[in-house]
TrEMBL record:
Record's keyword annotation contains Transmembrane: yes
TM stretches of this protein: 84-104
UniProt cross-references to InterPro entries, sorted A to Z: DCTN6, Trimer_LpxA-like_sf
Protein name listed in UniProt: Dynactin subunit 6
Length: 331
């Protein structure tokens, strides 16, 4: 009995194991099919991803190239036209402001230099009225477009044009304004002033301009100063034409209506202010508080010229040792 039961149990366990094996093999086949489907889907997704990535890369490259091409090629749109018009308007306004500033600067200089008032010598340039302000305003010129164009054309965009010869000695502390040409061997001391407002000033060779001397050109014509002229301390000269070998003494004043020839001497503190144009003959000597004139014989002019030459040589040697020199726009 026991043996029979044992055999029956063994047979039943073998039957169960065979059924489990059959079930496990079927389940494995299903899993294999699902795995194949998953692998196929994964491969499909990978291929699609690669295709999409390639398309996106091509699209980005195409967009960059088109943007670069658009940046190179001119774009004719209303927005670009409006931007161009705005830029042109701003540039034109800046040019107009610059031109008006230049014209106002020139007019202010003209207003000051043509109405210069010296309290020590009020009769040299008398004011039209008691008030300095009203006298200054009364001498101003009327403004027109033609005048502004001529002023800017004559003055140019540059402020000053100073040409100093390489052998001339011009100290740094010298006030030079306008178109000025200084010849060889000329010496200009510190604190001297040369204003070429109306027209250019051309200074010859061997001239000596001492401290606090003032030379002004009011007229539009060229103010020509000859050779070997001496301008002493504190003198003021506005003569449009000066010859050779003349001497303007200390604190003398020469009006722009006077033309000086050769070998003339203006005495100390003399005021030469004629109301009409006048030309001083050669060897004219002006002296005294009444600015009387006489003609000298010219005796001793050679000795005086030699002395002035020695004076110039001494100044050209000594001034650079104690003063900084100024260089112009050209030699």
């Amino acid at each position: 009995m026991r043996k029979t039961l044992r055999d029956l149990a063994e047979s039943l366990s073998e039957t169960d194991r065979s059924e489990d094996l059959e079930l496990n093999s079927g389940h494995l086949e299903q899993l294999e099919e699902v795995s194949k489907a998953a692998r196929f889907a994964r491969n499909q997704l990978a291929e699609n991803l690669q295709l999409e990535t390639a398309k996106q890369h091509d699209l980005q490259h195409t967009s960059k190239f088109s943007a670069w091409t658009r940046g190179i090629l001119p774009v004719t749109t209303k927005k670009s036209w409006s931007t161009t018009i705005i830029y042109c308007g701003v540039i034109i306004q800046l040019l107009l402001v610059l031109a008006m500033w230049r014209y106002a600067h020139v007019e202010a200089r003209h207003l000051f230099y043509t109405t210069y008032y010296d309290p020590l010598y009020p009769e040299f340039t008398p004011l039209q009225e008691n008030s300095c302000f009203s006298g200054t305003i009364s001498t101003s010129r009327s403004w027109t477009m033609v005048d502004s164009y001529e002023t800017v054309r004559r003055e140019g965009w540059r402020r000053d044009k100073v040409t100093i010869h390489s052998k001339a000695v011009v100290c740094q502390d010298v006030d030079l304004k306008g178109d000025i040409t200084i010849g060889p061997g000329s010496v200009i001391h510190p604190k001297a002033t040369i204003f070429a407002f109306g027209g250019p000033i051309v200074i010859g060779s061997g001239c000596i301009i001492e401290e606090a001397a003032v030379i002004v050109n009011r007229r539009k014509e060229v103010m020509r100063i000859g050779d070997n002229n001496l301008f002493e301390i504190g003198c003021r000269v506005e003569s449009p034409s000066i010859g050779n070998n003349n001497a303007i003494s200390t604190r003398a004043r020469v009006h722009h209506t006077v033309r000086i020839s050769n070998y003339c001497v203006i005495g100390v503190g003399c005021l030469v202010v004629p109301t009409e144009d006048e030309t001083l003959d050669e060897y004219t000597s002006v002296y005294g508080p009444a600015a009387e004139k006489r003609i000298w014989s010219g005796r001793g002019k050679v000795q005086e010229a030699d002395l002035r030459t020695k004076h110039g040589e001494y100044l050209r040697e000594m001034l650079p040792k104690f003063n900084r020199l100024r260089r112009g726009d050209g030699a």
